[in-house]
Amino acid sequence: QAKHAGKSAYARFTPDMTEVSHERLQMESLMRKALEQGEFELFFQPIVDTTSGRVMAAEALLRWNNPVLGLVMPDRFIPLAEETGLILTIGEWVINEALLEAAHWRREIGLELQVAVNVSPRQFRDAGFLDRISRALEAANMPADTLELEVTERLILDNSIETADILKQLDQRGIRLSVDDFGTGYSALSYLKSYPFNTLKIDKSFVHDVLKEAEDASLVRAIINMAHSLGLRVIAEGVEEEAQSHFLQTEGCDCSQGFFYGRPMSSQAFSHWLQTNGRANKDRFNV
Ligand code: C2E
Ligand code: MG
Ligand code: MG
Ligand code: MG
Q: By C-alpha distance, which of 90, 95, 82 is closest to 64?
């Protein structure tokens, strides 16, 4: 068969690879319909003040409920959504929905929480991005500093003037900016000095072994100290145990997020969670 490889490119594909690309095509076409069909849903996970335990914010995490594929987690469809450009419409929906939910917490529960939204590099580079954010804030009638955009170091890696400019404009409009999965990328630390970030989120891989591996403890401690000396707030991700929470408290980590405090929940479950766990926050906001 290989002899005829020049004649047909298919000869190089194994059945497995055909299946993979078939699955991609199927995913893509299902994803195109998902927005109209209302299959996307935002879950919310609390972000708490490490010392007081009070809820300060929530991160919006996307879920896809598809009748054929079942519940699809973001790591399985976001990369494809980025490749195909579908992330632009999906991402716009996410921002609108997250802000409407924050308006609901304020109006119905009396809590002024920030809402953190994950944003892909592709969204940032899109020309209409800033306008869409402004419109979403207006539609929800929420102040700009309600919204915190989470980006990864991947965005900074592209090192473009456009990215730097958009970050600056977002900052000037009062929107908060956060570096997600901090420590897993390859970018030079100098960007922290030149870009207007408010928050660093320590990646959960460091938090996971913070009590077992001295190196991880040193890294977490160093990140907290560095962030504070640059005037940044620090959030530890992936806090699963009380002992990890204690360590973070001792080290002065501002906020924590993880299964120990609360799992990502449907909007309804999160509102319910706030009713019982969020009251203490009522007269306190804006760290
Ligand atoms: P991320 O932004 O770093 O989100 C945190 C991930 O850690 C979430 O996974 C969350 O469920 C999980 N997590 C939270 N607490 C714990 C814990 O204590 N232990 C462990 N082991 N995991 C914990 P999820 O929801 O599967 O999201 C995965 C990634 O998908 C996110 O990572 C984010 O990069 C991306 N993503 C999610 N929603 C969106 C979105 O709306 N837009 C874009 N562009 N990306 C999104
Ligand atoms: Mg995130
Ligand atoms: Mg993260
Ligand atoms: Mg991540």
A: 90
Q: Is residue 173 in contact with ligand 1, taking CB distance under 6 Å? A: no
| 157 vs 268: CA distance, rounded Å | 37
Virtual torsion, Cα 189, 193, 194, 198, nearest 10 deg = 100
CA of 264 to the centre of ligand 1 (A): 9
Q: Report the chain's mean pLDDT, rounded to a whole number.
A: 91
Name the residue at shortest CA distance from atom 17 of ligand 1. 238
Position 3 confidence tier, pLDDT thresholds 50, 70, 90 = very low
How far does the centroid of ligand 3 lie from the alpha carbon of residue 47, in Å? Answer: 12
ipTM of the complex: 0.97
Helix (H, G, I), strand (E, B) or coil at 122: helix
Output the six-digit token pair for 53. Answer: 């335990």
- Bridge partners of residue 61, in order along the sequence: 43
Q: Are strands 233-236 and 255-256 parallel, antiparallel or unpaired?
A: parallel
Asked whether 202 lines ligand 1 (CB < 6 A), one says no
Alpha carbon of 279 to ligand 1 centroid (Å): 26
- Express each pLDDT in 121-135 by its tens digit: 999 989 999 999 999
Rounded to 5 degrees, φ, ψ at 176 are: -90, 150
